[in-house]
Amino acid sequence: MTSKNISLPNAEDLLKTLAQKVQPLLQANTALVGIQSGGVWLMQKLLVLLEKDIAANAIEHGTLDVSFYRDDYEKRGLKAENRPSQIPFDVENKHIILIDDVFYTGRTTRAAMNELFDYGRPASITLVALVNRGGRELPIAPQITAADLALDASQNLQLIQNQDGTLSLELQSLNFDQSQVHKHE
Question: What's the predicted TM-score (pTM) here?
Fold first, then answer.
């Protein structure tokens, strides 16, 4: 069920804003890493939008599926769309731009950082999120966002990849008792 109380921004417009904010970070020894699945969709679009800067600085890229690294894995289990992580470059001393779609509690980011450190010790990690929806539970926050939306815990914000490849945001209201369920992120 979609909430009628909030007007969501256009995800494609937010993506252009995000590209403008990420562009100055694209320097030598930098890599983009998208978190499955929405962060990977965003990264793929950023690779096209920032093609000249990425080529000029030899920016490498990879993907993470943090399912096994989550602190709530036993509750959540495996999702049907799990894909293996692919980090085809040396993470050691690399400046990582970590890309996620919707930042919520920080638990997905924590899991992504844990997995990245299994590949090596990056020089730095910059967290980029299309939307920060509020609700942080850990001392982790995105350094770059295209939008900040204050959402209620009973609302779930999802990035959707449409059949034509465009991205859109969808807000769902959860009709069950949230105290009985662990949060999305």
Answer: 0.88
